[in-house]
Amino acid sequence: MKILLAEDDAKMAEYLTAGLVENGHSVDHVADGRDALAYCLYNDCDMAILDRMMPGMDGLSVLRALRAAKKDLPVLFLTAMGQVDDRVEGLSAGGDDYLTKPFHFSELLARIASITRRSNDTPQTPSLKVEDLHLDLMARTATRQGKLIELHAKEFAMLEILMRNAGRVVTRTMLLERVWNFNFEPNTTVVETHMSRLRSKIDKPFAVPLIHTIRNTGYSMHGPR
Question: Looking at the structure, do residues 16 and 93 belong to the same domain, yes or no?
């Protein structure tokens, strides 16, 4: 995947570029917002990672100019501006995702995979399947080995995120943001509590576990490896 990285901090840019390249991506770096806009308008890339605070033109202005030019390039904000109002502003301007510094690199990779996959999606499929687990998005039901599994709304939402990202890491932060809309403090145990209940329904009655804990990071759904 070809990524434009717009980041004016040289050390951060070097760190990000090295990590993305190690994970199989091609990266072009600019340190000025005007250069970022020009690059996105006149070059091909699969997505852009924008800092909010850059010389020449801030990241939010870059995004607004891109959307005004009808460019639907996937854009991820990676910034120290982490207040809820900042996130809302970035997403409302047309950003596809918003990640604040400091961050775990594994989460950045997961979010890159998620937004680029969404941008290439055909219309949403009515169901999801991982091994012998089926999730019907229209009927809002889950079955495993043909057995109906009763899920509460939050459990269903968590399971849908895990299944849409099967084989990839879903972080605790991602679950908090997408299922609970930032309404909980970082030290809350709500994710762990609901995940324990979800596992008791999805995994405990069956021989093969599908939900796996990634230590100090989050969770991943997959079958035997």
Answer: yes
